[in-house]
Amino acid sequence: GAVVSQHPSWVICKSGTSVKIECRSLDFQATTMFWYRQFPKQSLMLMATSNEGSKATYEQGVEKDKFLINHASLTLSTLTVTSAHPEDSSFYICSAGGGHSTSGGAWGTDTQYFGPGTRLTVL
Amino acid sequence: SQQGEEDPQALSIQEGENATMNCSYKTSINNLQWYRQNSGRGLVHLILIRSNEREKHSGRLRVTLDTSKKSSSLLITASRAADTASYFCATAPPGNTGKLIFGQGTTLQVKP
């Protein structure tokens, strides 16, 4: 099956610093990647939709200047939390949808594969 | 914004029993999906049911969809301790954007 990885799996940083989280599709090319945030014991909140080669589409209430998303290739999307503050501490999860596997075959965006998540703690 | 509401929020059962979780949503959908999340981990896709389908099975999982009531249910039969996790429904709005709107989730504990 399709595999999505995230790096790092956890990160602790000081307030005011920037943190970059990578999301990679390992054995397929994903035309669309999604970024979610999950606070403890809560559900996933969609932050933005990232299409390869174009600007990300942010959900209402998500600051695009604070959460920079880059989708430079069909296998990599990055989320940079700029000037992080303690309230940004959360579990960040990416998913990849709408892809072509390296062994052939394609699927639409209704099939998404999720990464294992990155836990960010801002001190 | 959250669309789905799940019920119950928490469920505790004995191994071997069946577990039923319900999900309600508010707007039109293309499909509805169920995911499992073990504590502190990513999501595992369980099953997808399209808006023109009423019931779907996968192993010990049975999902129903009632678009007139805007609700879905997930039934896990003969539960096992390994089924302990949080379960989320997620709706995909029309338009094939790939967006998923997640419900609040049900935390299931299966006691051995």
Describe the structure.
The complex is a heterodimer of chains A (123) and B (112). In chain A, 0% of the residues lie in helices and 61% in strands. Chain A has no helices and eleven strands. In chain A, a hairpin with a 5-residue loop joins strand 5 and strand 6 (57-58). Chain B is mainly β. Chain B contains no helices and eleven strands. Chain B has strands at 5-7, 10-14, 19-24, 31-37, 43-50, 55-58, 61-66, 71-76, 85-92, 101-102, 106-111. In chain B, strands 2, 4, 5, 9, 10 and 11 form a six-stranded mixed sheet that branches. In chain B, strands 1-3-8-7-6 form a five-stranded antiparallel sheet, with no helix packed on it. In chain B, a hairpin with a 5-residue loop joins strand 4 and strand 5 (43-50). Chain B is globular. The A-B interface holds A 6, 32, 34, 36, 42-46, 49, 59-60, 91, 93, 95, 97-98, 108-117, 119 and B 1-2, 30-31, 35, 40-45, 48, 88, 90, 92, 96-105.
Describe, in short, the structure shown:
Chain A is mainly β and 123 residues long. In chain A, 0% of the residues lie in helices and 61% in strands.
Record the SSE blueprint:
The complex is a heterodimer of chains A (123) and B (112).
Chain A: E1 4-7, E2 10-13, E3 19-25, E4 28-38, E5 44-51, E6 57-58, E7 67-73, E8 76-81, E9 90-101, E10 106-114, E11 118-122
Parallel strand pairs in A: 2-11
Antiparallel strand pairs in A: 1-3, 3-8, 4-5, 4-9, 5-6, 7-8, 9-10, 9-11
Chain B: E1 5-7, E2 10-14, E3 19-24, E4 31-37, E5 43-50, E6 55-58, E7 61-66, E8 71-76, E9 85-92, E10 101-102, E11 106-111
Parallel strand pairs in B: 2-11
Antiparallel strand pairs in B: 1-3, 3-8, 4-5, 4-9, 6-7, 7-8, 9-10, 9-11
Low-confidence stretches of chain B: none
What is the straight-line distance between the termini of chain A? 37 Å
Number of strands of chain B: 11
Helix content of chain B: under 10%
Name the beta content range of chain A.
over 45%
* Beta-strand percentage range of chain B: over 45%
- Identify the most extensive interface between protein chains: A-B, 28 and 25 residues
Oligomer: heterodimer
Radius of gyration of chain B: 13 Å
Net shape of chain B: globular
Q: Sum up the overall morphology of chain A in one term.
A: globular
Beta-strand segment tally of chain A: 11
Q: Can you count the helices of chain A?
A: 0
Q: Give the integer mean of the pLDDT values of chain B.
A: 92
Largest sheet of chain A: 7 strands, mixed
